[in-house]
Amino acid sequence: MPDNSLVISYMTLRKMVGYLGILLPVLVVAGGELMPARDVRDSISAYYYSNMRDLFVGLLCMVGVFLYSYKGYDWIDDLLTSLSGLLALGVALFPTRSGETVPFAVGIFQLNDFVSSFVHYTCAALLFVLLASISTFLFTRTADPRTMTKQKKARNHVYRVCGGIMFAALLLGGVFSLPMLEHAAPPHLLLVVETICLWAFGISWLVKGQAILSDEVEAGLESSPGGAALT
Fold it and tell me: Would you list the domain boundaries of the chain?
């Protein structure tokens, strides 16, 4: 039988990742507006240059560490979640553009903000693609389809919907980032895209942790240490 303490710890880890993904845009944007109040910024990343800097970096680093430490069902799960964790740390440690016309050094590596922003958005784009792929293609796998429970089938549907939402949001953001469409983009589009992706990611991991659609009896039997492909 599986070690119950190990199973519980992995379920808790999944839930923590999910909660952090959902709370990140809410806390950063709400805090940035209230202390002191000001206009909504164009992206979540732009709140690095606000009173929410420490919270933004801290929450992203927590997500990155949780993802990196997560052990999946097989090597591909480990690889993709570890890469996701490293990319999340990259997003946190390489700030986006400051908005100033003259480049200046930012972040712990003291790169100019133009270079730092390039690294930041490259990491962010790759991170969201990986997270959408994990939800769509890895979370939906099952060791033996003949033993799939009704709850597992429902969870698979949620995983695919969340992955599809992330892919669609990224595509929308990419289309409006093209030079010929950049000026036609709706206000705060990047902020909306980032928030949608983070919420879809968070919901997917909450379901993975069986905070939603849990198996009452099969949860312990269905999971193995890590168990990324089974639940």
Answer: 4-222
